[in-house]
Amino acid sequence: MPQLFPYLMAATRGGLALIWKIVLVVELLGRSDGVGFQLHLAFQVFDVAALLAYSFAFIGVVQLIELVVLQPLERRASRWRRSGVAHA
Predict the structure, then answer these.
(1) Mean pLDDT across the chain
(2) 24 to each of 9, 19, 36, 73, how far by Cα in Å?
(3) What is the pLDDT of residue 54?
(4) Could you tell me what percent of the chain has a pLDDT over 90?
(5) Nearest-angstrom CA–CA distance, 39 and 54
(6) Interatomic CA distance for residues 60 and 74, integer angstroms
(7) What does the pLDDT average to over 25-45?
(8) Which uninterrupted H or E stretch holds 23?
C-alpha cells in the first residue's frame, strides 16, 4: 500500500478536477440554478464581474479542498519516508 499511495493521490487529484468539471457541465446543461448555470448566464450577458466572481469562488473551494483535505492526508501517509531518509 505505501508504494501505491503516490499513485492514489495523483488519481484523487485528477478525479477531483474531473468531478468539478462534470458538475459544472451538468449544471450548465440541465439545471436552472447552481454555479454552472450562473457562469453560463453571466457569460451570455457579458457580465465579466460576475463571471470572475463565480470563477474565483469556485477555484477557492477546490483549492480549499486540496489544502485542507488532500495535502494533510498525503503528509500523514508519507511521514514514513521522511523518517527513513533522516536515519540513512
Answers:
(1) 83
(2) 23, 9, 4, 26
(3) 87
(4) 17
(5) 7
(6) 20
(7) 82
(8) helix 5-30
In eight-state DSSP terms, residue 1 is -
Residue type, 51: L
| Rounded (10°) angle between helices 5-30 and 48-65 | 150
Per-residue confidence (pLDDT) for residue 86, from 0 to 100: 57
pLDDT at 47: 94
Q: What is the CA radius of gyration of the chain?
A: 18
Residues 6+ away with beta carbon under 8 Å from 62:
16, 17, 20
pLDDT, residue 34, reads 79
Q: State the pTM of this model.
A: 0.67
- The residue among 13, 32, 24, 22 whose CA lies nearest residue 71 is 13
Q: Half-sphere exposure (CA, 13 Å, Cβ side) for 46? A: 0
Q: How far apart are CA 66 and CA 73, in angstroms?
A: 10
